[in-house]
Each structure stands twice: as structure tokens, then as C-alpha cells.
Specification:
Elements (H helix, E strand, L loop, with lengths): L2 H10 L18 E11 L17 E12 L4 E21 L8 E22 L3 E12 L2 E14 L4 E14 L10 H6 L1 H6 L3 E16 L2 E14 L22 E15 L4 E12 L4 E13 L4 H5 L2 E14 L36 E14 L2 E13 L14 E12 L1
């Protein structure tokens, strides 16, 4: 390692991932990690729930496992898995009832669901480069997703510049939970979305390119571009509603192209023994959705110079942060007004356009406050994190009501072990 990289490492080792772009090298030890996350959405607002009362929204628990082990000095294997359980009500459709001018959301309760994920990847390391391949599978009762990826990076400019890139592809098979009855006219009329989605699939391909540049021993900047193309069944099969006659209440285009630009800054502050992380992401797609995300985190390191702490290599890192998100609405997002319909039916088989009242396609903004604490003890590390997320159309300069947007708490804790 040249002298510049040595100085960078000395100043930035306390910052996870800070010198990842500085040089390629295989992992020196095996790493095992476990994470537990609990996600809890606030209850639906009773005044905007057409059931007349508040409902318990999603509660999700996630168990994640990670193992990274060197097979040789130039080859490493990573195995990651997760188990997720979820239950609670979710918004099915949003509308304005006949005779009123207030927006309501209909929620549907869900029985407990499970999801299993497995990701296996291998990476080979050269003196200034690395190459990895991976495979992923996700299984739910109504969904199967598989994907594969290839990526790599190379260090240039006396290892002060790193160029990375990769490609991935995936295939998803959809089988909604209602028992499919082939040829059933009743099911086709009552559950047209689920009936029509049975056996549907979609595929996608993604490519990305990134550049990381070491400016000085305390500063790293990075930029990346990504493009994704999706094709197939992209609608939500669970958004059936009574104001759609024999057709789904959610029909989206069968293709979607997505472009993403990401910019990042990592700045170590020696006088504070801390670091500032700042990221910006621009997202645009062919559904006319454009979003902006600004993420700022501060990492404060503290290593007490007391005998108990120095003898056991005990160190602390506190990381408060804030994230702001803003997006425009998709061109086919709309809240149907039953006052403008005939007989309470808004959509029918003559409707030839796309439409959806999914709040995730609306114009809105969101603010997340988060904090994270990491405690290192010899070869162990304990991590705890808390996040409060609030979505609101007014945060996105939209005065319209969107009662289905989520507001949630998320708590994460876990343990890392290096051996």
C-alpha cells in the first residue's frame, strides 16, 4: 500500500467502508452476523378509514443472518439468509364516496405471512481488482423470485480511483393466495385482479456503473449510475374494489424503465474523531415518477482511554441521521370520485387506460429521523438502531389528502462476530 493509502487508512479505519475503494483485498477473517428488526406502522386514521374505526396496520419482524468467510487468500464466500413474518391491515383502494367530498381508504386485514430469502455469492480478489457472482431466491406463499448478478471493481490512478460495475437479472412468479378456479365467472367478477394474476410473471435486468475517488486522506467522493428495465405483470393483484366492474382496480403498464443517479461524500473530521456521510439520489422512470432523496449521517467515534476499555478493545460509535424524500406522482395515479360515476362503477371493461389509487404512486414527501449505536468489544460488535419515518403529502408540496401513506417505527439490533 502506498503512503497516501496508509494515511487514509489511519484516519478512516473507524468509518465502516471508508477505505473499501482504496484497494482490493480479500477478507482477513471470517465474519458472522445476526440482525433482528421490528417494523410497526401507525394505525390507520379512523376519520379516513371507511370502516369507521382505526385498524392495526403492518407489523413485520425480520431475522437476518450473514456469514462471510475466506476460502483462500484471494477467494471469499458470502451466505446471507432472512426469515420475515408480517401481519396487519394494508390499504387496498382510495376513493371519494358518493355524496361526499372526503377521501377515504379501504383497508384489508392480512393473516400472518412468511417470507424466506437466501443469497449466496462468491468473490475473487486481485491485487487491485475484484470480481463477484451471486444468486438470490425469495419465497412467499404467493410469490417466488430468483435472480443472479455479476459485479466487479478495479483500482486505478495509483489506487486513488476505483471504478465498479455490474449486471443483474431476475424473474418473479406470481400466484395470489386465493385458490384459483379455472373458468370461474364468479371469481373473475368478484376478484378480477387475483383471478387474472394467477400464473403471471415478470422479469427485470439491471446494470450499474460507479466511480469512487479519494480526494485526500480524509475525503472520499463517489458517483454511480444504474438502469433497470422491468417487463411483465407489474400491477398489484390485491387491489380489487367494488367500484370496478369485472376488472381490477389497479392496472399498470407492463413495462417500466428506471434510471438512478447517486452521489456520495465521506468526510472524516480528525479534530472530532468523527465523520460526515452525505448522499443524494435521483430516481426517474417511464411512469413519470421522479424522486429525490437526501441522506445525511454523522458518525461519532469514542474510545475511552480507561484501562478496562483499552484492555478489552472497547469502542463506541454513535450515528444520528436524517433523510428527506420527495416524489412526483405516476401519470396513471388517481383517486376515483364516485360522484362522477354511474351506479357507483368507475372502471369497467371499456376502460382502456391505466389507473391506480396506490398511495405509493402519489406525490408526497417523507422525513426519517434515525440513530444508530455500535459497541465493539474484542472480536464482537453489538449494533442497535431506531428510525422514525413519517410520510405526508404536504412534505411533498401536495395539498391533497392521501390517507393510505405509512408512518412507522423501526427498531434493529444485532451482533457481529469476527474469528
Amino acid at each position: 500500500m502506498n503512503q497516501k493509502l496508509k494515511l487514509l487508512a489511519q484516519s478512516a479505519f473507524a468509518i465502516p467502508g471508508m477505505i473499501a475503494t482504496a484497494h482490493a483485498a480479500g477478507p482477513a477473517a471470517t465474519e458472522a452476523a445476526y440482525r433482528y428488526s421490528y417494523y410497526s406502522e401507525d394505525d390507520s386514521p379512523a376519520a379516513r378509514d371507511d370502516s369507521g374505526g382505526a385498524q392495526d396496520r403492518y407489523k413485520i419482524q425480520v431475522h437476518q443472518f450473514h456469514l462471510l468467510t475466506p476460502l483462500t487468500d484471494k477467494l471469499a464466500l458470502t451466505v446471507e439468509g432472512s426469515y420475515e413474518t408480517m401481519a396487519g391491515a394494508s390499504p387496498v383502494y382510495t376513493y371519494v364516496p358518493a355524496g361526499e367530498d372526503t377521501v377515504y381508504t379501504h383497508f384489508s386485514g392480512a393473516s400472518q405471512e412468511q417470507r424466506y430469502d437466501l443469497n449466496v455469492s462468491g468473490r475473487v480478489y486481485g491485487s487491485t481488482s475484484d470480481l463477484g457472482v451471486g444468486a438470490y431466491v425469495s419465497v412467499e406463499r404467493d410469490y417466488l423470485a430468483v435472480s443472479g448478478s455479476v459485479d466487479g471493481s478495479i483500482a486505478l490512478n495509483d489506487q486513488m480511483t476505483t471504478v465498479s460495475g455490474g449486471v443483474s437479472g431476475g424473474y418473479d412468479l406470481i400466484e395470489p393466495t386465493s385458490a384459483y378456479e379455472a373458468g370461474s365467472t364468479a371469481q373473475a367478477a368478484n376478484e378480477p385482479a387475483r383471478f387474472g394474476a394467477s400464473g403471471q410473471s415478470k422479469w427485470q435486468v439491471s446494470v450499474f456503473e460507479g466511480v469512487g475517488q479519494i480526494i485526500d486522506m480524509n475525503t472520499v467522493v463517489q458517483a454511480n449510475l444504474a438502469f433497470t428495465y422491468k417487463n411483465g405483470y407489474l400491477s398489484d393483484p390485491y387491489r380489487d374494489c367494488p367500484h370496478a366492474e369485472n376488472v381490477p382496480c389497479d392496472i399498470r403498464p407492463s413495462t417500466r424503465a428506471i434510471g438512478i443517479l447517486g452521489l456520495g461524500l465521506r468526510k472524516f473530521l480528525p479534530s472530532l474523531n468523527g465523520a460526515l456521510h452525505a448522499d443524494y439520489r435521483l430516481f426517474v422512470d417511464t411512469w413519470d415518477i421522479a424522486s429525490h432523496t437526501v441522506d445525511v449521517d454523522y458518525y461519532q467515534n469514542w474510545a475511552p482511554n480507561w484501562r478496562l476499555f483499552t484492555a478489552n478493545d472497547i469502542k463506541f460509535q454513535l450515528s444520528p441521521g436524517i433523510r428527506y424524500y420527495l416524489q412526483s406522482s405516476g401519470y396513471f395515479y388517481e383517486v376515483p370520485d364516485l360522484n362522477d360515476s354511474i351506479g357507483g362503477q368507475v372502471y369497467n371493461t371499456d376502460t382502456s387506460r391505466y389507473y391506480s389509487s396506490d398511495p405509493r404512486l402519489a406525490q408526497y414527501g417523507a422525513i426519517a429521523l434515525k440513530t444508530r449505536l455500535r459497541v465493539d468489544f474484542r472480536q464482537f460488535s453489538w449494533v442497535g438502531a431506531l428510525e422514525r419515518y413519517v410520510a405526508n403529502p404536504e412534505f411533498g408540496f401536495n395539498s391533497s389528502e392521501i390517507p393510505g401513506l405509512p408512518t412507522f417505527w423501526r427498531f434493529t439490533t444485532g451482533l457481529d462476530y469476527r474469528f
